[in-house]
Amino acid sequence: DVKVTQSSRYLVKRTGEKVFLECVQDMDHENMFWYRQDPGLGLRLIYFSYDVKMKEKGDIPEGYSVSREKKERFSLILESASTNQTSMYLCASKKTGAGGYEQYFGPGTRLTVT
Amino acid sequence: TQLLEQSPQFLSIQEGENLTVYCNSSSVFSSLQWYRQEPGEGPVLLVTVVTGGEVKKLKRLTFQFGDARKDSSLHITAAQPGDTGLYLCAGAGYGGATNKLIFGTGTLLAVQP
Questions:
Q1: Which of B51, B3, B56, B58 is nearest to B27 (CA)?
Q2: CB distance A44–B103 less than 8 Å?
Q3: Among partner residues A4, A43, A101, which is closest to B103 by beta-carbon distance?
């Protein structure tokens, strides 16, 4: 059974703190993604990675960075958290290649920045 | 930037009713997926449609990909409370963009018993 896990389900941080969100997948997928989900806006892509140490900006990368040192792990970093980064953060993974269209999602981390 | 608009944004119906959710774009996609997300969980894939005009059925759910590959619809027959959730469509681009998905704005469905 495929699995994507995220380090925390709920997180409360203060403005200006550095925040780390961790994601681990056990499917040996090449691609991993970080999204944020806000009501009425759907899922917006922050960053994705197609290989170890490789990353590409998504649609809303400002204020975020990522790290992928191992194939199974993809971290999202908020360098200095701000209240407008309060959101649901979803991690996903996907295999590359023919038929590899499906993205598998973790349960999400609901981050509140006060 | 490619955009996928879903309608309606919210839908509250009684058990047994039929409904249709629409997903529209001005962009062409190589494939289109539908996901359902339940509260407190991540989205889960329901179906992928790849060919223009394709129709796929999943029990009481019928999915259609538009002939021009710019739009899709999800029809639910005889809705049940278990169908409650957020429905998201997502389109994939061509070539190197197939790894990324563009997600729709979502349709929140509530089926009352």
A1: B3
A2: yes
A3: A43
B53 neighbors B68 (Cβ within 8 angstroms): no
> Nearest CA to A25 among B42, B10, B109?
B42
Residues 6+ apart with CB under 8 A from B106: A40, A42, B6, B9, B86, B87, B88
CB A102 within 8 A of CB A13: no
Which amino acid, A6?
A: Q
Question: Taking CB atoms and an 8 Å limit, are A102 and B1 in contact across chains?
Answer: no
Per residue of chain B (113 residues), what is the pLDDT tens digit? 567 899 999 999 999 999 999 999 999 998 899 999 998 899 999 999 999 999 999 999 999 999 999 999 999 999 999 999 999 999 987 766 667 888 998 999 999 99
Cα nearest neighbour of B30 on chain A: A101
B86 touches chain A (CB under 8 A): no
Contact B81, B113 (CB under 8 A): yes
The Cα A36–Cα A85 span in angstroms is 9
Structure tokens at B28: 């062409």
Q: Any idea of the CA torsion for A88, B65, B68, A60, to the nearest 10 degrees?
A: 10
